[in-house]
């Protein structure tokens, strides 16, 4: 869908993420809440086998991922899990971790929660 609104940004159109034209894309939104700060990421990976590596985040950071379509291997480097459409996983992201497409067309939502600053 193409929007004619002048308030739309390049990566969002009336709150709807436009389809990417790259092999992988990440769109994010963020906000704070009592007890920490969270970011919501939309991850799309077009090609099977494509992998996104992520270094360890701050101590106590947690990631939650739900797969909307496709197949995704994700989690800590030493303990990843395979996810299919509709699957959900939570893991500590204060260690090196990754996201890898098992099949073409991965679409997932990731919520990253950082601990409150001391």
**Count of distinct strands:** 11
Residue runs with pLDDT of under 50 for 5 or more positions: 1-22
The helix-strand sequence is: EEEEEEEEEEE
Helicity, in percent? under 10%
Q: Summarize model confidence as the mean pLDDT.
A: 80
Query: What's the CATH H-level superfamily name?
Result: Jelly Rolls
Report, as a whole number of angstroms, the end-to-end distance.
Answer: 44 Å
Give the biggest sheet. Answer: 5 strands, antiparallel
**What is the global morphology?**
globular
CATH topology: Jelly Rolls
CATH arch. level architecture: Sandwich
Q: Count up the helices.
A: 0
Using the coordinates above, name the CATH class.
Answer: Mainly Beta
Structural class: mainly beta
* Percent in strands: over 45%
Strand order across the biggest sheet?
3-4-11-6-9
Rg (C-alpha, Å): 15 Å
How many structural domains can be distinguished in the coordinates?
Answer: 1
InterPro entries: RmlC-like_jellyroll, RmlC_Cupin_sf
Protein name: FlF4, truncated DNA-binding protein
GO molecular function, one term: DNA binding
Organism: Streptomyces xinghaiensis
